[in-house]
Design a protein that fits this description.
2 domains; Rossmann fold; about 40% helix; 6-stranded parallel sheet; 7-stranded parallel sheet; 13 strands; alpha/beta; globular; about 475 residues; single chain
């Protein structure tokens, strides 16, 4: 379905909640559903919103979202291209002169050249221009953690923003792991966009997040008032991620998901744990859903412990292949130091695969109590991970009990249908508030007549009027 077709409005008849269907613009500056939770969120939430009877237009940049468009005519994708500076196989590329279209492109390249990450800001500026040109076509705009200056002010419809967890948490953990002054400077510069995200978040009147843990982090790290933050749990596609006894379980197989070789994911501790348990279980091996790192702590640990044949990395697999991989494991593991929710935990539990997970961030909120629906260990503790793996691999009755209990927990609490219903309720609340989307709180140190965050709307409008697109 094209963007033009969506202008006809939603289909006739009420939505499943009995109210009129909504026209929703869902923004995502990165939409790859096979690398990171934000793309997964957009794919599944958009599908379920459409199933509830609403018209959803996903507006995204590269890598473009992959949607389940064929299943519902109310769901469409509008591509809002960037310069795609981080694309494979030439990340951090310098565009040719003919690729530049306007001042936003120049800003994107300049920020990359100076070591920063430009996409949240530049996508927000492009999205602002796009939305204002289509004023009146949407009932609500839902931003998926862009938190860019371009979304402040009037964008033509009430704004709801999802913050999965503050990226300041990632910044803090990477700084803690950084060695040397040069590396620490590089990390600080790359995460420079978090200053903007803090300022924008404080101006928002309605924020969605995925867990109570993330809610508190947003209050503490971003300074958002707690009465503006609403928890709407996300979940697993329980039709896809389901048990299948016909899939053979491979003895000793451990499966984990790690979309990036960053300290946050804790993969190095799982590799160390694998080395420990292989002394008693030589068949133990690890399959990582993610890209193989060529250097860094994980690559070094694999080489140091001689695990080249015991650690396999897979990427680019289909949904069906991913599900069968998880089903084939004796243990699914989430070794993260922190998670704002942990989709891999929910998805593994939904298949009935027993879960070993750390207590980092919101993982216990998803995985449940130790010994009831999972085994839980402290984050960053390879000895505890090894003990948990050893216990699960040697006890089939425990695996069966935890696997069954884990699936029941997901079915009761964490499904995308429930997430969509909760999200629509927040849309309707935001639409009922005049000028919803942006609040303008003043701090005690902000002079009268001055905003607590930089005012960019006038600058953006002026540059738009002079830009050639």
């Amino acid at each position: 379905m094209t963007a033009e077709a969506s202008q006809a409005g939603p289909s006739e008849g009420p939505a499943t909640d009995g109210e009129r269907p909504l026209r929703i613009a869902l923004l995502t500056y990165k939409g790859n559903p096979f690398c990171g939770g934000q793309g997964v969120y957009v794919r599944h939430l958009s599908r379920e919103l459409a199933r509830l009877g609403h018209t959803v237009e996903v507006i995204g940049s590269q890598p473009y979202p992959v949607l389940d468009e064929g299943h519902d005519e109310r769901l469409s994708l509008t591509e809002l291209p960037s310069l795609d500076l981080y694309r494979h196989p030439d990340p951090f590329r310098t565009p040719k002169s003919g690729e530049y279209r306007d001042w936003i492109d120049a800003l994107e390249v300049g920020t990359m050249w100076t070591g920063g990450f430009p996409e949240p800001l530049t996508f927000s500026l492009r999205a602002r221009r796009h939305l204002r040109a289509r004023r009146g076509e949407f009932d609500v705009v839902h931003d998926n953690q862009t938190l860019g200056y371009g979304l402040l002010g009037d964008i033509g419809a009430p704004l709801i923003t999802t913050i999965h967890h503050p990226i300041t948490v990632d910044r803090r953990l990477e700084l803690d792991a950084a060695q040397g002054v040069r590396r620490r400077f590089s990390v600080r510069r790359w995460y420079g966009f978090t200053r903007m995200q803090k300022r924008v978040a404080r101006r928002l009147s309605s924020v969605l997040t995925v867990s109570a843990t993330s809610r508190q982090e947003i209050v503490d790290d971003l300074g958002v008032r707690d009465d503006r933050i609403h928890v709407v749990h996300i979940g697993a596609d329980t039709d896809l991620f389901s048990p299948d006894p016909s899939v053979p379980v491979v003895p000793g197989r451990i499966v984990t998901t790690s979309s990036a070789d960053v300290p946050l994911k804790g993969l190095v501790f799982l590799v160390e744990a694998l080395a420990k348990i292989r002394t008693e279980r030589p068949d133990a091996h690890l399959v990582v859903v993610g890209k193989r790192p060529e250097e860094g702590p994980v690559a070094q640990a694999v080489e140091r412990y001689g695990l080249q044949g015991a650690v396999e990395f897979v990427k680019g697999i289909t949904d069906a292949e991913l599900v069968d991989l998880v089903r084939s494991a004796e243990v699914a593991c989430v070794p993260s130091l922190y998670e704002g929710f942990s989709l891999p935990a929910a998805e593994a539990m939904a298949t009935g695969t027993p879960l070993l997970a750390t207590t980092g961030g919101a993982i216990p909120e998803v995985a449940g109590r130790d010994g009831e629906t999972c085994l839980a260990v402290p984050p960053g503790d390879s000895e505890a991970l090894a003990a948990g793996l050893s216990r699960l691999l040697s006890d089939p009755d425990l695996r069966a009990r935890l696997g069954a209990a884990g699936r029941e927990r997901v079915l009761a609490r964490f499904t995308w249908a429930r997430a969509a219903e909760g999200t629509v309720a927040r849309y309707r609340e935001a639409m009922a508030v005049p000028d919803a989307g942006e609040a303008a709180p003043r701090s005690a140190t902000t002079p009268p007549g001055r905003s607590a965050a930089p005012e960019v709307a006038d600058v953006v409008s002026d540059r738009e009027s002079r830009a050639t697109c």
